[in-house]
Design a protein that fits this description.
With about 190 residues, the protein is of the alpha/beta class. Helix content is about 40%, strand content about 15%. Strands 1-2-3-4-5-6 form a six-stranded parallel β-sheet. Helix 2 packs parallel to helix 3 and helix 6 packs parallel to helix 7. The longest helix is centred in the first third of the chain and has 14 residues.
């Protein structure tokens, strides 16, 4: 909160590493951070980028009680690649988290992001986009996966900018409020 005040931020994204080691998945910490930012910088809009909280509904409700303007949870990839890219994640659980967020807080903007370049064909990306709209996700980011180290999965394909533009247009036709899609887009 003090950093937000010092930097005079209009918008802040609060995120963390995954905290599956905590009973609430880190939800109480997200809530406290939101509350402290509100006290010190009440005009700053707040986005939280959260893990799936292992499907814990009470943890999600705790975060939403603090009233962030945007709840972001990255879907990350297509369902077929989940086991390889997110072995502890669950595609349906991610969609449920976004849907439940909307149900608990109807005025909230929901946001998700995916990375491409791991061998997913166009039709799988489009299906994820449709799935996200089915749960009323508002904002979508699509970016090129870049291998952070030799220990991580390799890049299977570098996607041309024209394909990102096609996905942006498709997303807008589905009704997303905003689609940001380019090789360097990050959530």
């Amino acid at each position: 909160a003090e950093a937000v005040r010092r930097l005079n931020l209009n918008h802040v994204v609060i995120t963390s590493v995954n905290r599956d080691d905590l009973p609430d998945g880190g939800a109480s910490q997200f809530g406290r951070c939101i509350e402290e930012v509100r006290k010190i910088s009440p005009k700053t809009t707040i986005e939280v980028l959260i893990p799936d909280l292992c499907g814990n509904r009470q943890s999600l409700a705790l975060i939403l009680q603090a009233s962030p303007e945007v709840l972001n949870h990255n879907t990350e990839t297509v369902p077929r690649l989940y086991r390889r890219t997110r072995p502890q994640g669950d595609y349906r659980r991610s969609l449920e988290l976004l849907q439940r967020s909307r149900q608990l807080s109807p005025s909230l903007y929901t946001k998700s992001g995916i990375m491409v370049g791991l061998g997913e064909p166009d039709e799988e990306v489009r299906q994820v986009m449709q799935d996200l709209r089915t749960v009323d996700c508002d904002i979508l980011t699509i970016g090129q996966y870049l291998q952070p180290s030799q220990k991580h999965l390799g890049v299977e394909a570098f996607i041309p900018p024209s394909q990102f533009e096609a996905w942006r247009e498709f997303g807008e036709s589905l009704g997303f409020l905003q689609v940001v899609a380019s090789p360097l887009t990050r959530s």
